[in-house]
Amino acid sequence: MKKYQAKLTTLLAAIVLSAGGTSHAFQDEGTVRIGSLEAQTGVPSPYGIQALNGSKIAIDEINATGGVNVAGKKVKLQLMPSPNGYDPGADSALTVALIKKLALEDEVLLIKGTSRSQNTEVAFKYLNEMEKAGTPIVLMSSLAGAPGLGGLSKWGFRNSFSEAGIIDRQIELLSKKFGYKTAGIYVVKDNSHPAIVAQYIVTPILKKYGIEITSTVEGMDADIDLSSQVNALKRANPDIVVVASATNAGVNIMKEAGRRGLRPKIWLGTIGNISPEVPKLGGNSVERMIMGSSYSPSLDSVSKLRDEYIKRNKTDINMFGVDGYEAIYLFKEAIEKSGIKNTKQSLQEDREKVRVALQKTEITSITGEKIRFNSDNDAVKKGFILSIQNGRYVEWDQNEFK
After folding, report:
1. What is the per-residue pLDDT for 271?
2. Contact partners, residue 331, CB within 8 Å, separation at least 6
């Protein structure tokens, strides 16, 4: 425990030093501060880095046109701390400490983050403590998709993609169109999001459509030897294998399946399986997988964003980058409609105005969908079904794999 506390103290000290050079803020200097709290290390980093990079592209686009309209003046969006925000990794305690720092010391108007459902649950609950202290602030996650987080705090928002609706559509299609009768499930038990999705979304929906679960096998995020899990699935011989995991664990189970001759009719991935690393690391092993997504790569608007993302980051964009981009435009709309003064003296009052405005905000996203928030501050999205072909995510043609 002492070692952990020392580590946390050292990290916070380094953060304070790294952020010390930022000076621009508020209306008199022509900026609006947005705090960033995306994971750039640890298990959630493949998702957090995407969301951060997508957000930065949106900020640069908005600033290139003069910024946002506040009190009759164009002001620029300022990411805090520049250039990449704070990195809480997968650490919930550090997440809370950094929220407090962003709100009280960095004096940001809103916070963009966090990058994992566990961190977000803790963060949303902490927002309620901040409200009791009179210093609450809006926090919006583009990544936390676990059921039940919406409504934890009126200050917590999510434009992340909820899987429940799209998984229902997928399984209904596999049952009614293709006639699939059986399913196996692979779930990592040390990651709360896929574990919750497997138990409370996938399992009831499979039963709803009369699909028998013939095998459920568990693993850990860091597992390398998955032979026993694959052998158990192979003995059950299901039509569908559901992969409820983060990126590396999902790739590992499908590659091991390929080595051991497990070839289901289809793999059904959760959103943890959407990452540029999946087709890169998985190769042919992952090309019979479908998964729900908040966007379609075939859209012209997304293609332009993708090209810019690749140009800047030398890797492909995915759903989390697109949602990070979308989140900044939701912020822009709320800021412009809120009537804030954007002064140091009005900061807490401005935060309340932006929260109220964000609840009523509706935009047409780059994905083509109209995005608004429901009563739990969760974005309402229908979504798209993707697959992987020739090393790239594409919109699934809804035909069986050969």
Report:
1. 87
2. 34, 77, 110, 112, 140, 358
